[in-house]
């Protein structure tokens, strides 16, 4: 079932309103019980990579199809803010640890392998190989009936990029596991929040004229993310004798140049001037992409290297097992419109930045204040704000991204640029939603570690640092009432140095804390007061 269009008098053109993909898979999927939930005897599906872009979207689709779902993650607590959290089982496991992942897969009928080490450094092939072998053995020993894996589309008979070669190797390892396996091979995925889509989007929107590598004229068969999800859901019901890979792609074959021009037309932009040259290597291209788009060089390079190949489906055999939807697969223009609608409505459910930055700290702030004898530098600030706690919280929860950091923009820009130059995420990563945050969301070069709605936002630094850093922003009612002024705004910056370099770093930047954190405190308080006045003046204006 393709997305249905409905009319909205407040918008220009149709509004896309996609239903769950299970709607066009009747007869393949279990379907929901009378209470609108999966039946107790429905197949149990274990999903890895649930904190990632595809995994986070697949879980609700599987639930809507009537499957029981077990979400497997190294830190299941990161999932608690997901809207589907209470509808699934959770299991704590590292897929690279045999005992852990075998226990997590025990009792599951189908296992989705949505793990890869894209952009994690030079040894990513070895990590992918080891994890795939461990997962294959664990699935076999746990009695899993089918593995489903999403890999990359690659041309036959060519020397592949390291990224595509690794994805192909993982597929072969799983196919040889002894467990019937479905390997889906896709090229560029079109969807709000995907790294491939955002790379194309920002290149097209920010550069009305550009010089690009010659690979922009290579042919690509992109696919809408909802069609990827449909194939993933449908693959769970494949017959036992099926153990093979399938090419999956959308209904059109385009060059990257054509994709950018078509994107510009859908987005209402002027036709772009695109000049191809042969001197830009994948490395130089990825650096250029990282300067123009939010996608960092470490992630951009494998994406660019994959585009050096022509990636077009050689077959469409999957249609015999997962039939095409009645209205056909989603075309390029419709996929872009749907993605842009999600972006404009701040309804991007998952994003490429959902995955943590390689090498960034992942452990939460310890509760031991003495750090077992270690050093912990703290900068604490508190101020009373003539605004309600509710108004203040709305400002606090909106920090970062398009709203900025409420202090000395040049300093934040310079710190973000320095971080990009040394391989960090920088400030261009932005945020998934401009107003609401969930645990594990990326916010520029921070990661949300804790959210207590209305009271606490704790961010963990993912920038390149000689230590571990956190920033806490908290709101307290000054009068005991949530809706009445005043409120108390507290900030706490914490830094745990690593070695002498960490201590020197803290003492080098601490003189600027008054400008950065002090200014941030003042400006957030000012924005909250402004919001409070606007709220209280609104009824008077209407009288």
Automatic annotation (TrEMBL):
Coiled-coil regions listed in the entry: none
UniProt xrefs under SUPFAM superfamilies: NAD(P)-binding Rossmann-fold domains
Name of one Pfam family that matches: DUF2867
Domain of life (superkingdom): Bacteria
Protein name: NAD(P)-dependent oxidoreductase
Lineage: Bacteria, Bacillati, Actinomycetota, Actinomycetes, Micrococcales
Any one GO molecular-function label of the UniProt entry: protein-containing complex binding
Source species: Cellulomonas soli
Domain NAD(P)-binding span(s) in chain numbering: 49-177
